[in-house]
Amino acid sequence: MLTDAAIRKAKPKAKAYKLADGGGLFLLVTPTGGKWWRFKYRRPVTRKENLLAFGTYPETSLADARAKREEAKKLLKDGIDPGQQRKAEKLAGAELAANSFEAVAREWLAKQSWVPGYLVKVTAWFEKDVFPWIGARPVADLTSPGVSGRGAAGRATRGDRVCASHPAKLRASHALRLRHRAGNVQPHSQSARLAHGNAGKASRGHY
Prior knowledge:
By secondary structure, the chain is of the alpha+beta class. It has helices spanning 4-9, 62-77, 82-98, 101-110, 116-129, 131-134, 151-165, 172-183, 185-203, and strands at residues 17-22, 25-29, 35-42, 49-56.
């Protein structure tokens, strides 16, 4: 088993070499002096050998690398490929970020045909009074059950929720404008998802 002292003393050589810790975990020392954690395992279904990266030393400590190895071994025990699990989590995170209120709102803003000065002003409203509070949240989460998002009533309900999320007291006129603009984002996201879905069906030959 490895020790921190042994890892610190490991010097680069002409070719990369491994320092084994056991249980599939090893440290790869590169000719440039890099020290990379790797976990070697066999995929549950194909039984093919695969490597999983756990970061670099000392950013990822010996204890942290061992903890990651144990987490991966638990997944393997349940028949789950830790490499595929990581990919799935990354894809889920990317999809969540793409559907965040800020991402959808910026897409909506980019499609507006306002004069440049007004676009700058509205964008600043969002960046100052909306994004810091709900920008990272999935836009779908901002629609409560029973609110369809159609018409002024739906937009006002969503806009009220945006204003309620802001801890400071906004001036009435500013809050009203902010409520109206924020409320327009959700219908845009629904239209975008519908268009994307229809395009997908068309490409597969469904009409």
